[in-house]
Amino acid sequence: MKIDGTPYRTIWQDAGGVVQVIDQRWLPHEFRVVPLRTRAEFATAIRDMWVRGAPLIGATAAWGVAVQMAVDASDASLAETWEVLHDTRPTAINLRWALDEMRRVLSPLPPAMRATAAARRAAEICDEDVEINRQIGLHGLEIIKAIAARKSGPVNILTHCNAGWLATVDWGTATSPIYHADAAGIPVHVFVDETRPRNQGAQLTAWELNSHGISHDLIVDNAGGHLMQHGEVDMVIVGTDRTTARGDVCNKIGTYLKALAARANGVPFYVALPSPTIDWRVHDGVREIPIEERNGAEVTLVQGRTKDGRIESVQISPDGTGARNPAFDVTPAELVTGLLTERGLCPATEAGMAAMFPDLKAAVAA
């Protein structure tokens, strides 16, 4: 995607071999690029949400392994790096997938060959993510085209959190169909959930869409059901941090409520699902997926820009009031209209997913 006419990915290796990332903590008010040079810096970037979004977390972890292999390529270092990076975020499955993939590639190699192989595989994982998301967009474009053919005016799409290019290496998952529709000349309008408490919708999705000139409105999290009741939403599309083998979807907190509202009002609810986000070993999402509980300060404080341009956090609750901060919830498969994958639209059922990805399911079974 482009920022002020310049194309960017969210993570890349510069000409000097240093990995660079967009530090998303400061958006939309400041655009900052920072280098990650050590394993500790990669762990901090993932844990403290300099980077966020399941696909980007996985790509960042892969590069974290590569950087560490250039320092110490021993078996002990590889094992320790897997643990250090895996412990940063418990819910998004792409993190474990990328670490497992790096370990699979590197373990059979002698230490002297690991640094080069690790950098090559990390770069491939990034390129693969870009193509996966591009394909998701092309398949999602067909859904938007079908809706556009049935109505006058723009196709109204509701999103939740940020499943845009900032959550991936490029294109995004839920936003990829929107970008493809815009490029195809199909008028779209996006309702952007603010997504408390980190406000990824307000700060990231809105910034993306604004940068690309795509029509959108920011709405509070609880407005989506009202808009659906009044026929103002044609479809909902969200991302996912982990999807079970039977199609339960774990995504940013608040997704479940949007799915319930969509079902009650006959609005199709789609999930943009890159295949590395499927956890084939988990079936019951509510009972089996670990839900990250983040610091309550994310709920009691809000970050914004003051009139004089300073970025500050302010307290919005009384002193002494505690806060719960589960970062994700699980939407049962029966509430999902379809899973939008790089291979096409898939039913949110165990049989449907197995038919769409027989190779991946068989590999896990083996």
Please give a handful of descriptors for the protein shown:
366 residues; alpha/beta; Rossmann fold; 2 domains; 7-stranded mixed beta sheet; 4-stranded mixed beta sheet; 19% strand; isomerase; S-methyl-5-thioribose-1-phosphate isomerase activity; NagB/RpiA_transferase-like; Methylthioribose-1-phosphate isomerase; amino-acid biosynthesis
In terms of quaternary structure, the protein is single chain
Mass-distribution shape: globular
Distance between the termini: 38 Å
Beta fraction = 15-25%
Explain what you see.
- This protein is α/β, with parallel strands linked by helices and 366 residues long.
- The protein is 41% helix and 19% strand.
- It has helices at 39-47, 54-71, 75-86, 93-106, 111-149, 176-183, 200-211, 224-229, 255-264, 285-288, 297-300, 350-356, 358-365, and strands at 2-3, 6-7, 11-13, 19-22, 33-36, 155-159, 188-193, 216-219, 235-238, 242-244, 249-252, 269-272, 278-279, 301-305, 311-315, 328-331, 338-341, 344-346.
- The chain has a 7-stranded mixed beta sheet, sandwiched between helices. A 4-stranded mixed beta sheet has the order 13-10-11-16, covered by helices on one side.
- Strand 7, helix 7 (200-211) and strand 8 (216-219) form a beta-alpha-beta unit.
- Helix 2 (54-71) packs parallel to helix 4 (93-106).
- The two termini are 38 Å apart.
- The model has no long low-confidence stretch (mean pLDDT 96).
